[in-house]
Amino acid sequence: MRSILVKVIGSSVIGLATLLIGLPAAQAKLPQAARRAAPPPAALSYPPLTSPSSSSAPPLSDPPVAPGNALMPSNNASVMAPSDSAALSDPPAMVLSDPATMEDSQPSGRASDKPRQFGAMFDLGVPDGTMLSFVYRPVSLARLHAGAGYNGVSPGLRLGAALLPFGDGPSISLDYGHYFEGDANGLAGLVGSKDDNVLLERVGYDFVNLRAGMELGGDRFTFFTRGGISWIRTTIHEFQSLLSPGDAPSNGNTSISVTEDPVLSAFVPSLQLGLIVQL
Fold first, then answer.
1. pLDDT for 243-264, tens place per residue?
2. If DSSP codes are grouped into helix, strand and coil, which group holds residue 55?
3. 3-state secondary structure at position 25
4. CA-based radius of gyration for the chain
5. Which helix or strand (DSSP H or E) is residue 87 part of?
6. C-alpha separations of 41 from 22, 31, 75, 127, 173 in Å
7. Looking at the 3D structure of the chain, how many domains does it have?
8. 72 with 66: CB under 8 angstroms?
9. Summary mean pLDDT of the chain
10. Which CATH number characterizes residue 128's domain?
């Protein structure tokens, strides 16, 4: 009986020891076998996104799903539309404003840096007489004018320019004019002369004015006054009539004659007052 019990106990101990020894080896072999049995996951590939304008691009399809991979999106998952991706990739288009709208948005009124270019000028002066001129102002610092006038004897013409160093205010002008010959006896009669004089029957002259002054006004109307100096050149006709026979020497051997009309030139004070209307 004792020997049978000893054998049962010995076989139980041997079997328990064998089980304890073989268990770690079995655990080490189990993951290797599982890894050899599982297939490798398939490589994921996505088709490139194309612009919505290309009509030949194939439609987007769901990426392949590896077996047993529960994290991959299914057919029910939402996919970004090509139009949405193009909208995210393309930069926003620039919106240009209408030039007419931009002009309307500017404050009303004329710009102070560009005055009106055309206008008319009326002025009185010595030796200019009465003048009416056309005015052209190409830049804010200069003004050109050309016109016609009347000095009480005959009509005349005048050309000139004015320099405005500050755009307005102080000004310097230079003019050249010519009055045609006319009978000045009527004008002389207004100042007290009763008899006609042959020297006044043909009176005309050229003149050059150099003046400085001040201009006052705004964009539409400008008043000005200037003073300076003028150079006048005139021809005295019928000067021979001034020499009477009694002026000759008593012996009668000497006589005085004038073969050409003398020319007289002089510098005289000059004055001008006028109004400019810009159109």
1. 655 554 555 566 666 678 899 9
2. coil
3. helix
4. 57
5. helix 82-89
6. 33, 17, 19, 111, 98
7. 1
8. yes
9. 76
10. 2.40.160
Q: Is residue 231 part of a domain?
A: yes
Alpha-carbon distance 215 to 195, whole Å?
Answer: 43
Higher model confidence: residue 54 or residue 232?
232
CB-neighbour burial class of residue 63 (10 A; exposed 0-12, middle 13-18, buried 19+): middle
d(CA 44, CA 73): 12
Query: Full-prediction pTM beyond 0.85?
Result: no
Beta bridge partners, 147, equal 133, 158
**Is 152 a member of any domain?**
yes
Task: Say what the pLDDT of residue 64 is.
Answer: 55
What is the mean pLDDT of the segment spanning 191-206?
Answer: 87
Query: Residue type at 8?
Result: V
In this predicted structure, what is the pLDDT of residue 189? Answer: 84
The phi and psi torsions of 203 (rounded to 5 degrees) equal -120, 125
- Whether 205 is covered by a domain: the verdict is yes
Q: Which two tokens stand for residue 55?
A: 């009509």
Per the CB < 8 A criterion, the answer to whether 263 and 217 are in contact is no
Tokens linked to 250: 């008593």
152 three-state secondary structure: coil
CB 224 within 8 A of CB 214: yes
Q: How far is CA 44 from the centre of its chain?
A: 61
Chain segment 109-151, per-residue pLDDT in tens: 454 567 899 999 999 999 999 999 999 999 999 999 999 999 9
Please check whether residue 238 lies inside any domain of the structure: yes
First to last CA, the chain: 147
**In this model, does residue 59 exceed pLDDT 60?**
no
How sure is the predictor about 108, in pLDDT bands with cuts at 50, 70 and 90?
very low
Q: What is the domain range of residue 155?
A: 118-244+258-278
